[in-house]
């Protein structure tokens, strides 16, 4: 580690002291700290390099090395050089090194050097866009890397200030495509590629019985009233290319008659003979569609022969394996669903050797994972469990990845690692520095940025207490409703709700019923009001304020010991005293 590189983990005084001790080994710590304090008090806003230069000047006065040379030491040159090259990555290294060596110690100021280089210019080397791309990815780790790559190609030929300006604007506005959007789009493209760039094995993993799947009368048509014009054109282009010896007008008629049901269209077109001597030239698809159901259907119809051939070979191989297993008495029975005649390749075992079929192990472990379990006991109650190797053979990659992540997270929690933080939106955990306010989850299925304090999604630049969530709204509205109930009165006869504007406390409803505004009792005349009963006249503001505050206190008691982030009763007195 470079001793002249400031270490963030240490207080600033210790950073300076460590460097000065190495440069001036004969000076006591008392003098070292005196010099540091003098420089810090003299110009606390100065840069690290400027402060270090002043400290060198002061330390040289104690006779450790004699007078300070006209130029800075090689150690300081290295530090100076590193800082400037980070700011000007397109600078010629030889030019920058010579520039640093020529700087007088008295002018050792990074900000001034930057200004001079910007104003006077510097020798450059042709930058590789990949270097700019790496720099952008380091500065904006949550940005779409493909977007950053395009920007790197654009910025490489521009002045260095453009790169700094781009980063500054991106950090301030957060207005750029995100990594989450990039990964979602990539996943979508990968999913579509299974059907566009056909892979029969992957296809059969998704559809083990494709004939049954795509010929089912219950299957929803991939093209319906919500489909786009581009999707219909894509389907027709497939039919034109797949039936090159059939005239387009016949294909169009069948497509319309069969209501754009491709399976039925192909069944009808298969029965038509060739009505053209020469096949039509293959047409290019005009649009790049994302209708997964349509792409699945086209992949099945386009590769039916290959799919049937592969399924036939698999079936023949399976029959041979089964006969061989029967010959050698190797057939087993699943101890969960009791399916008989499992060949050895279909058997999965707990750690004590209980036999199960793949479907049972897969379904059972997936249910256990859904319940949050991390151990998977044998279904035969033999006090054993399934090994991780067995789970690898039966679970999908996505399910297995989530399980591994959850296991790792739980193990990390048990280890009680200092600074370990868990994402509130998934099981991902990582160590963060104390001063980091935002948890930026790097789990590709999550990628949520959350506040470490309130455990909600990041709300920068607002503080936690300035954000109202669903539970906060429920509490606030509950108190508001109780305050409203306390403020209003209800007619004892017709149940109409009312509030008094002014006047005496004998209220007469539109229905003719009379009651006391203070206690709500039914009255016939003024006899209810007097010295030993309710007052005929009162200060309405005081009465309403007292009832509203009482309603708010009752509501808070009913809510219990919970945080009321936005208290509607706060400062209510100002309203009534206005």
UniProtKB/TrEMBL annotation:
Residues 330-539 form the RING-type domain. Keywords: Metal-binding, Repeat, Transferase, Ubl conjugation pathway, Zinc, Zinc-finger. SMART domains: IBR. Pathway: Protein modification; protein ubiquitination. GO terms for molecular function: transferase activity; zinc ion binding. InterPro entries: BRcat_RBR_RNF216 (IPR047545), IBR_dom (IPR002867), LUBAC_E3_Ligases (IPR051628), Rcat_RBR_RNF216 (IPR047546), TRIAD_supradom (IPR044066). Pfam families: Rcat_RNF216 (PF26200). The keyword Transcription does not apply. This is RING-type domain-containing protein. It comes from Exocentrus adspersus.
């Amino acid at each position: 580690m470079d001793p002249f590189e400031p270490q963030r983990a240490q207080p600033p005084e210790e950073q300076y002291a460590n460097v000065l001790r190495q440069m001036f080994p004969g000076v006591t710590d008392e003098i070292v700290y005196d010099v540091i304090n003098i420089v810090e008090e003299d110009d606390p806003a100065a840069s690290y390099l400027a402060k270090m230069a002043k400290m060198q000047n002061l330390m040289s006065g104690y006779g450790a090395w004699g007078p300070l040379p006209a130029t800075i030491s090689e150690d300081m040159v290295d530090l100076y050089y590193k800082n400037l090259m980070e700011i000007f990555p397109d600078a010629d290294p030889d030019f920058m090194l010579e520039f640093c060596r020529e700087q007088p110690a008295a002018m050792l100021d990074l900000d001034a050097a930057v200004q001079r280089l910007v104003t006077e210019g510097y020798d450059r080397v042709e930058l590789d866009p990949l270097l700019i791309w790496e720099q952008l990815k380091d500065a904006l780790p949550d940005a779409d890397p493909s977007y950053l790559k395009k920007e790197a190609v654009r910025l490489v030929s521009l002045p260095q200030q453009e790169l700094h300006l781009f980063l500054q604007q991106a950090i301030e506005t957060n207005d750029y495509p995100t990594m989450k959007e990039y990964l979602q789009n990539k996943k979508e493209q990968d999913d579509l590629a299974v059907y566009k760039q056909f892979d029969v094995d992957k296809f059969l993993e998704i559809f083990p019985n494709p004939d049954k799947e795509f010929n089912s009368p219950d299957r929803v048509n991939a093209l319906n009233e919500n489909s786009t014009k581009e999707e219909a054109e894509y389907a027709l282009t497939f039919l034109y290319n797949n039936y090159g010896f059939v005239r387009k007008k016949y294909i169009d008629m069948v497509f319309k008659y069969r209501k754009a049901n491709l399976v039925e269209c192909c069944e009808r077109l298969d029965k038509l003979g060739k009505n053209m001597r020469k096949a039509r030239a293959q047409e290019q698809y005009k649009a790049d569609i994302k209708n997964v159901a349509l792409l699945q259907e086209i992949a099945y119809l386009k590769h039916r022969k290959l799919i049937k051939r592969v399924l036939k070979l698999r079936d023949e191989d399976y029959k041979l394996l089964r006969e061989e297993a029967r010959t050698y008495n190797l057939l087993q029975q699943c101890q969960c669903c009791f399916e008989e005649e499992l060949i050895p390749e279909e058997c999965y075992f707990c750690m004590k050797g209980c036999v199960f079929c793949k479907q049972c192990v897969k379904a059972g472990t997936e249910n256990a994972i859904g319940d949050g379990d991390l151990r998977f006991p044998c279904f035969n109650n033999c006090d054993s469990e399934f090994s991780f190797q067995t789970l690898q053979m039966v679970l999908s990659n996505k399910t297995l990845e989530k399980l591994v992540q959850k296991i790792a997270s739980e193990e990390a929690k048990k280890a009680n690692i200092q600074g370990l933080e868990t994402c509130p939106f998934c099981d991902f955990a990582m160590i963060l520095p104390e001063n980091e306010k935002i948890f930026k989850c790097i789990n590709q299925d999550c990628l949520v940025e959350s506040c470490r304090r309130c455990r909600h999604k990041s709300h920068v630049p607002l503080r936690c207490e300035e954000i109202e969530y669903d539970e906060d709204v429920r509490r606030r509205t509950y108190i508001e409703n109780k305050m409203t109930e306390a403020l209003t009165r209800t007619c004892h006869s017709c149940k109409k709700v009312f509030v008094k504007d002014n006047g005496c406390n004998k209220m007469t409803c539109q229905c003719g019923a009379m009651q006391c505004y203070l206690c709500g009792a039914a009255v016939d005349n003024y006899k209810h009001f007097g010295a030993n009963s309710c007052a005929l006249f009162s200060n309405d503001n005081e009465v309403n304020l007292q009832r509203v505050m009482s309603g708010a206190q009752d509501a808070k008691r009913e809510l219990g010991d919970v945080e009321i982030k936005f208290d509607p009763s706060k400062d209510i007195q100002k309203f009534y005293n206005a």
